[in-house]
Please model this.
Amino acid sequence: MGLLKVTFVEPDGTVRTIENVKPGQSLMQVAKANDVQGIYADCGGGCSCATCHVYVDPAWQEIVGPPDDIETMTLDMAMDVLQSNSRLSCQIQLRPELDGLKVTVAPDSKS
Model:
C-alpha cells in the first residue's frame, strides 16, 4: 500500500499539505497528528461532536461519499456552518483512492 497526500485549508486560509500518510487512518487522526488548526476532535473520533467538521472539496465529494445517518445527526450540531459538502473528518477513512484529497476546515460552530 502506497502512502497518501492530503491537503487541509485551515480556517485562516493557510493551506497545509501533509504527505506520507498511511492509509487506514481517519482524516481526523492525520489532522491531529499534524496540528491542523480548527480540528479539535473533542470526542476523540466517536462521531459524537462536530469539532472535526470539514468541507470536502467538490472534486472529491463523490469519491469520499456522503455521511451516514449518525454522522448527519452529529453534523446537525453545527447547523450554523453546515454545507452540502460537510463531513466529520473522524468518519473519513483514508484509502488509496483518496490520495490527493482536499478539505477545508469548517469555522467554529456557534451552536
Remarks:
- The domain at 4-105 is CATH 3.10.20.30 (Ubiquitin-like (UB roll)).
